[in-house]
Amino acid sequence: MTHFMRMIPSKKLPASILGLSTALFLSACTPNSTAEATAKSNLGSKSQAKNVILFIGDGMGISTITAARIFDGQSQGKKGEEHQLAFETFENVALVKTYNTNTQVPDSAGTATAIMSGYKTNIGTINVPPALLDARSADSCNPEALPPTLTQRAQNAGKAVGILSTARITHATPAAMYSHSPSRDLEADKDIKGVFSNCTSIAQQMVDSEAEVIMGGGFKEFTAGQIETLKTDFIYVGNKTEMAAAQNGKLRGLFNRSHMSYEADRTETDEPSLAEMTSVAIDRLSNNKEGYVLMVEAGRVDHAHHGTNAFRALTDMQALNEAVKVAKAKAGDDTLIMVTADHSHVFTMAGYPVRGNPILGLAKGFNPETRQIEAIKDKDGKPYTTLGYHNGPNVREADSPVLTDNMVQAKDFRQQTAVNLGSETHAGEDVALYATGPGAENVRGVMEQNKIYNIMAKAMGWEE
Ligand SMILES: [Zn+2]
């Protein structure tokens, strides 16, 4: 899906906006190897997390969570509204402000930087401070000159790192776990040109990564030589069967040419589920006696929303929920588990449907004249769905067919939208953060997104 930020050249941004980001950057923590060394000797302390598992539902706004909760409950024969997703039982919850330094409505690159590096940055940017972008500094392509990420600090502290996504592994969110890039679009070597000719592609940075486990989609972003290196230097797997049979060693998995399939389309024998990937990753990472940091992204909730296809967004949410259940079952009490979104989508749930109404269905209410539960009609006398989008590719025209339950509950149905855009957009309201385990007590109130980094760092004993 096309992202709007590709149309915004970062060098045209006003300096006043960049000033804000610089302040945030300066307030972020700096690495402290002494603290990391002390943390090592404190493993086992009750207040400290040996491991951190961070789940990111890409585009998982609060309306998405509510709809997924009902959808999952209804899949189990319940009315749905009373149901709870696995992470909704976590005792600590906060609201998170997601804006990028130069946009009210953010993208995944700027938000992933806030989470993985502890400072906010411009839309479209991965782990590079906005001041360097503004100055067009050559250092924006020099990882050695950039603030270290959570991954780098974890590795310095002897922890193993795992990175999982159902999106291309070079896509913004997983890329923020192992790369620095002034543009999220520098995925492959072929993208390195012009003002970015001194940069290293995200794919090459993935090949160079020391992480214990990296799995997702997107082998088309790698050259034949890079794939060869992955096969010779790592345990490389290309499908679910190979993943299950993989030998010990650093594991690399690329399961699709581009993004992995939506959960609703996944062929059982080809691609592992997010839960299966999570299980394999936790088993391997748990062998490291100093602990681990694992990031698990449900990357395609976002893509389904961009196409106003609520069915696939909600079925990918179920896949995320199953992965969280695996983490809860496998991780010990010394593990901080957090579930959040990078940003929201313009996805709404509306129209006074009756309790237990199918969440993907037509909005139906009680008609006192007929004493029947019937589809509620709009001012043109046409039924509409409970779920809809503020903008996107499916604006209803005067001659659009009258919606029926069969049409709207089909897996390819695209919900109606108000503003006519080729691709539905992200939304700018706060997202939720759910947490359990050591350090989870700091997840409360309304926070800036970069605070998530500090919560993880503090939980691992790296800073006060
Ligand atoms: Zn998106």
Task: Give a structural overview.
With 464 residues, the chain is α/β, with parallel strands linked by helices. The chain has two domains: 327 residues, Alkaline Phosphatase, subunit A (3-Layer(aba) Sandwich), CATH 3.40.720.10; 57 residues, no CATH class. It has 15 helices and 17 strands. The strands form four sheets. Strands 5-6-4-3-7-1-8-16-2-17 form a ten-stranded mixed beta sheet, sandwiched between helices. The protein has a three-stranded mixed beta sheet with strand order 10-13-14. A two-stranded antiparallel ribbon has the order 9-15. α3 packs across α13 and α11 packs parallel to α13. The longest helix has 21 residues. The chain is globular and about 70 Å long. The site of zinc ion has 5 residues, from α12.
